[in-house]
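Worked example

This section walks through a single chain of length 167. The input is the sequence exactly as stored; nothing has been trimmed or padded.
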Amino acid sequence: MSVYTVHEPPRRGADALAEAERFVFVRDGFYWWAFLLTPFWMLRHRLWLVLVIYLVVIAALDAVLHRVGAAAFVITVVGVLISLLVGFEAGTLRRFMLRRRGWKNLGIVSGDDLEDAERRFFDSWIRNVSARGAVSPNASVPAPPPGSAGPEASGVIGLFPEPGAQR
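Given that input, the structure is written out below as tokens.
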């Protein structure tokens, strides 16, 4: 199962349902395209600041490694390691840039794939919006999944359903 964070863009109007198709789901995990084609992946996702920082770091490391007389193999390995780091942190880089642009993190959802995660999130989110009867500024916060009690409901954090319960 994959885990996704859900991000809501800054609202253009008062209707949250009309804005729902603009939500972005960012998967946690390794991004192969970010590893293999790092600058192109950054361009694809409009990560301009991240791309500039990446190019500056690569150029600086290349200059330093050439100046100290490192072998071409070492320079290549350093480049691959940086791309590997970007592949592991690609989701974090996307979330960082979304937050900088004013997007709001609505929560976390899991699913077998993106479509399943979207279905799970929107089932819960639409129930929450329709339960309120009207769209309010906080309508984008999804309700907890059915059958789960939040910490405020039971006051218990952990695996046991009641404080002091024994089996």
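What to look for: The mean pLDDT is 82.
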